[in-house]
């Protein structure tokens, strides 16, 4: 498990800043748990209560963008030629 912080991510639901924990177990689906979420409003960053159902729905709807962002920041390590031989 790794702690992550995303200072800014643009999604169809808005612009967010978030922190959380990612489980990047090899050969498994990446699971994330968001511990804080802010949305950029016209007045600046506004904290959202991650425990509410409406915010959980937002997190669920942007989960793929979050995972994609984390994978771009931390690309999987390349396998050595020996491990790819059959």
Set down the secondary structure blueprint:
Layout lengths: L1 E10 L2 E10 L7 E11 L2 E5 L4 H21 L7 H4 L2
Antiparallel strand pairs: 1-2, 2-3, 3-4
Could you characterize what this model shows?
The chain is an alpha+beta fold and 86 residues long. It has one domain. Helices cover 29% and strands 42% of the residues. It has two helices and four strands, in the order E-E-E-E-H-H. It has a four-stranded antiparallel β-sheet. The longest helix is centred in the last third of the chain and has 21 residues, at 53-73. The chain is globular and about 40 Å long. It starts with a strand and ends with a helix.
**Count of DSSP helices?**
2
Q: What fraction of residues sit in β-strands? A: 35-45%
Provide the gyration radius in Å: 15 Å
Oligomer: single chain
In which range does the helix fraction lie? 25-40%
> How many strands, which pairing sense, and closed or not: the largest β-sheet?
4 strands, antiparallel
The total strand number stands at 4
Overall form:
globular
Integer average pLDDT: 85
- The computed structural class is alpha+beta
Spatial strand arrangement across the major sheet? 1-2-3-4
Query: Which residues form runs of ≥5 with pLDDT under 50?
Result: 77-86
First and last CA, distance:
31 Å
Give the H and E element order. EEEEHH
User: Number of folding domains?
Assistant: 1
Keywords for this entry:
86 residues, disordered C terminus, alpha+beta, four-stranded antiparallel β-sheet, globular, 2 helices, 29% helix, single chain
């Amino acid at each position: 498990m790794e702690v992550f912080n995303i200072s800014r991510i643009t999604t169809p639901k808005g612009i967010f800043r978030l922190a959380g924990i990612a489980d990047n177990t090899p050969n498994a689906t990446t699971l994330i748990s968001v511990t804080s979420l802010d949305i950029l409003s016209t007045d600046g960053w506004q904290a959202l209560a991650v425990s509410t159902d409406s915010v959980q729905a937002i997190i669920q709807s942007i989960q793929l963008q979050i995972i994609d962002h984390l994978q771009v920041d931390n690309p999987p390590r390349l396998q050595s030629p020996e491990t790819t031989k059959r």
